[in-house]
Amino acid sequence: MTSSVKVDHLSVSYHGEMALDNITFEAPTQELIGIIGPNGAGKSTLIKAIMGMVPKNQGDIKVFDQSVSKMRQKIAYVPQRSMIDFDFPVLVEDVVVMGRYPHLKWWQRPSKKDRDKALECLEQVGMEDFRRRQIGELSGGQQQRVFIARALAQESDLLFLDEPFAGIDLSSEQIIINLLRKIRNQGKTLFVVHHDLSKVEEYFDSLMLLNQRLVGFGAQEDVFKPQLISEAYNGNIATLHSEDGDGQMVVVK
Amino acid sequence: MENLNYFIDAVMTYPFLQNALIAGVLVGIVCGVVGCFIILRGMALMGEAISHAVLPGVVIAYMLGASFFVGAVITGVLTALGIGYISQNSRIKDDSAIGILLTGTFAVGVVLVTTIGSTSINVWHILFGNVLAVSRTDLWMTLGITVGVLILIFVFYKQLLLSTFDPTMAKAIGLPTRLIHYMLMFILSLVTVASLNTVGIILVVAMLITPGATAYLMTDRLPMMLTLSAVFGVISAVVGVYYSYIYDVATGASIVIVATLLFTLAFLFSPKQGVFVRWFRRMTTSKA
């Protein structure tokens, strides 16, 4: 098994408008992979397409060399926080138990074993003390950790995280990135949609630059280059050089 | 107290009042449970549309001599499909599509009623219920729908919970989210038919939304919300029938008023969410 996700000439359109144009790539396993690009670049669409949730115009997608429909159990998804109704009458532990659903038959209820697994995953993200809280009573970073625990409870090999750092404070961001590294070191592959260029070099092993088409994909240090970033962001970036002339930093205008 | 004794005597004596109470209790339970999912999915307006769309179905069924049941389900589900089709295939948003079909189907129903003449079918009873005329057959039908719907929700509880809370994950793990949506629409049509006699088409949405909303203010867990909602539905029905009998007022409306009062109490005094309780807590903490 050499690739986690293999995408071949994928195109997707929404209401007649091209969202993803002829994307081809092969992603490694056991890495933290960042998906970067401007708003409307199709980052969320790409992960939804890989998970088989949006119809594709053309192209072929393989997850661990299998079709997605056979691999659903192995793929976990951490939603964008803005997509969740945090007033929902559900406790933290109930949310994590949902990660066990893909392992249950349609008529089965979560068993004691499933609940224990959920609790163990809550401990892994350091949220076990909050298990009886309603999900909306937590801070943004804590909510994100609960959803990561849910993905862990699913025991998947491939994780998709949609903007896990959006709207949370810096110390939570640190906790979460450390968690993601730990998960990678357990042998899993993580795709992280990210729209902030800072910290990219620190966070990711591989990087994908997307703007409807694939601008660059590969090891982070090969892809995080001003000219490629500029291409992905349609030239809307500025490059800052450090005083000694060696370092440089890219910011979005 | 004297009124209560009088009421209990009447219940013992008159089968029509027994039927009314049983029908009310069943409708309170089934509407309360289904309503929780309607609220959490943000589909209150959809509930309103489906319940109105049942009118032409009922009238056509009456004209053909077929069962109310079949007619109501057909027009209810067709309307749900129509709303989905319009919002997916045009720039019209969901709420507008609902507004168009809600009034459109209802108008067709009204026209049909007027063509067949008001002597053969009592519009008032369909629109506002006539709980004191619940027959044995009606009762069996309401019981059948209640039991059937509760079984469906019990069996598919896990799928309903996930697709309501996180539709994206539900889709990602391969749940048929669209099928679940239309299953709920089908259930809504059934529940409307079951409630025809008790509260009628116009007010059924109150039985769906109000007890559920009241329960929503009282608890942080869905199983508890479902239970409380059913309890509030039953209380509304029993107390509503009582007042309607004692003061000789319309039963459906009386039931809905009780439900609304319960909601008002929860809105003001619920331990966690109550407006008054939160105000009181703010006052005491700012003093301390």
Automatic annotation (TrEMBL), chain A:
<comment type="similarity">
    <text>Belongs to the ABC transporter superfamily.</text>
</comment>
<dbReference type="Pfam" id="PF00005">
    <property type="entry name" value="ABC_tran"/>
</dbReference>
<dbReference type="InterPro" id="IPR003439">
    <property type="entry name" value="ABC_transporter-like_ATP-bd"/>
</dbReference>
<keyword id="KW-0813">Transport</keyword>
<dbReference type="InterPro" id="IPR017871">
    <property type="entry name" value="ABC_transporter-like_CS"/>
</dbReference>
<keyword id="KW-0067">ATP-binding</keyword>
<protein>
    <submittedName>
        <fullName>Manganese transport system ATP-binding protein MntB</fullName>
    </submittedName>
</protein>
<dbReference type="GO" id="GO:0016887">
    <property type="term" value="F:ATP hydrolysis activity"/>
</dbReference>
<dbReference type="InterPro" id="IPR050153">
    <property type="entry name" value="Metal_Ion_Import_ABC"/>
</dbReference>
<keyword id="KW-0547">Nucleotide-binding</keyword>
<dbReference type="InterPro" id="IPR027417">
    <property type="entry name" value="P-loop_NTPase"/>
</dbReference>
<dbReference type="GO" id="GO:0005524">
    <property type="term" value="F:ATP binding"/>
</dbReference>
<feature type="domain" description="ABC transporter">
    <location>
        <begin position="5"/>
        <end position="237"/>
    </location>
</feature>
<dbReference type="InterPro" id="IPR003593">
    <property type="entry name" value="AAA+_ATPase"/>
</dbReference>
Automatic annotation (TrEMBL), chain B:
<feature type="transmembrane region" description="Helical">
    <location>
        <begin position="222"/>
        <end position="243"/>
    </location>
</feature>
<dbReference type="GO" id="GO:0055085">
    <property type="term" value="P:transmembrane transport"/>
</dbReference>
<feature type="transmembrane region" description="Helical">
    <location>
        <begin position="249"/>
        <end position="269"/>
    </location>
</feature>
<dbReference type="GO" id="GO:0010043">
    <property type="term" value="P:response to zinc ion"/>
</dbReference>
<protein>
    <recommendedName>
        <fullName>Manganese transport system membrane protein MntC</fullName>
    </recommendedName>
</protein>
<keyword id="KW-0812">Transmembrane</keyword>
<feature type="transmembrane region" description="Helical">
    <location>
        <begin position="20"/>
        <end position="41"/>
    </location>
</feature>
<dbReference type="InterPro" id="IPR001626">
    <property type="entry name" value="ABC_TroCD"/>
</dbReference>
<feature type="transmembrane region" description="Helical">
    <location>
        <begin position="180"/>
        <end position="210"/>
    </location>
</feature>
<dbReference type="GO" id="GO:0071281">
    <property type="term" value="P:cellular response to iron ion"/>
</dbReference>
<comment type="similarity">
    <text>Belongs to the ABC-3 integral membrane protein family.</text>
</comment>
<comment type="function">
    <text>This protein is probably a component of a manganese permease, a binding protein-dependent, ATP-driven transport system.</text>
</comment>
<keyword id="KW-0472">Membrane</keyword>
<dbReference type="Pfam" id="PF00950">
    <property type="entry name" value="ABC-3"/>
</dbReference>
<keyword id="KW-0813">Transport</keyword>
<dbReference type="GO" id="GO:0043190">
    <property type="term" value="C:ATP-binding cassette (ABC) transporter complex"/>
</dbReference>
<feature type="transmembrane region" description="Helical">
    <location>
        <begin position="139"/>
        <end position="160"/>
    </location>
</feature>
<feature type="transmembrane region" description="Helical">
    <location>
        <begin position="53"/>
        <end position="86"/>
    </location>
</feature>
<dbReference type="InterPro" id="IPR037294">
    <property type="entry name" value="ABC_BtuC-like"/>
</dbReference>
<keyword id="KW-1133">Transmembrane helix</keyword>
<feature type="transmembrane region" description="Helical">
    <location>
        <begin position="98"/>
        <end position="127"/>
    </location>
</feature>
